[in-house]
Amino acid sequence: MRLSAVVNCVAFASMLTVAGATNAAPDLNAIRVAEPVRHANLAVYFIHGPSQAGPVPLTLAEALAKGAVQVRETSNVNSLEIENLGDTQVFVQAGDIVKGGKQDRTLMVSLLLPPKSGRVPIASFCVEHGRWSPRGVEDAGKFSTASASVPSREMKLAMQAPITAAPSPQQQAAETSYRQQQVWDRVQVTQHLLAAGTGAEVRSPQSTSSLQLALENDKLVAMRKAYIEVLQAAAKDDDIVGYVFAINGKINSGDVYSSNALFKKMWPKLLQASAVEAISHRAEKAGDAPKVLDVLAFLSKADAGKASAQPLNFGVNRVTHSSPAAYMFETAKPDGAFLHKNYVAR
């Protein structure tokens, strides 16, 4: 099958400036931000709004479990290959962690894969420093699961924050290397913070550098369960399309989707990552939960930030809005409608 245009490993370096905001949903006049639901140091603000009509794609986790998608190793740390073998669209979200291969990776861009997509390169960062061989009985040539997402605001920024000018190929390579090192550094910091938050060593003897294996630590999973039991069922309303969360009184990140159905598919993984990040900051001083008006201001300022766009595969576009307080990373479908927005405080 035809190899689609490469999703650049340094996608942040190839933006095309656009005038004004494109598809700047959510329309703050059409949404409602609810009062927070809290557990310990984590506060969750659900975003209620209209859903777009149409079919709901599979998530990457669903597609891998069904065997509908394959994510393959390329022996390039910062690029993998993905293929949708099935008959349903598949949504890949930036920050998804794929387990296996020669090193666990996190995917750098969000993408909507059409059915029978053919083999598509997709940018990645390594979240397991040092391993370059099969781990146990895993297949070093491909990745088996995508059950977790990056649980660190700083890691999200290292992966996705744009740079101000389009560099030369040599500068692009240097920028990729620099950001990869930032991601590795944040993995180590996250493991250290989780050890402090849980009172246990979370690094796995099987691969001490693996973020994925640290997230599977029994003590961490047990502590995470307490957050999930309180917060997962709170997302019961059929008009919830996203959420924003705060840790220790500080707004951290948020995600908004085109439909309630897609949000509900993503919510368990989002909540797990948010809970893990909250656990990693348990030792810090807690603060009062932000007001709903603060959350609305966070969304509004990010939406109003300077916009730049980058075409991805299959007519999908990535639009980044940059403001002094936050970034908003939008995945826009070929028809111009938004599919997903990720908000990250700076």
Account of the 3D structure:
The chain has 346 residues and is of the alpha+beta class. It has one domain. 28% of the residues lie in helices and 30% in strands. It has helices at residues 60-66, 153-160, 169-198, 211-215, 218-231, 260-280, 292-303, and strands spanning 16-17, 32-33, 37-39, 42-48, 58-59, 69-76, 79-84, 90-92, 96-100, 105-107, 111-113, 118-126, 142-149, 240-247, 250-257, 306-311, 317-322, 326-332, 338-345. The strands form three sheets. Strands 1, 2, 3, 4, 14, 15, 16, 17, 18 and 19 form a ten-stranded antiparallel sheet that branches. Strands 6-7-12-10-9-13 form a six-stranded antiparallel barrel. α5 (218-231) packs across α6. The longest helix is centred in the middle third of the chain and has 30 residues, at 169-198. The protein is globular and about 50 Å long.
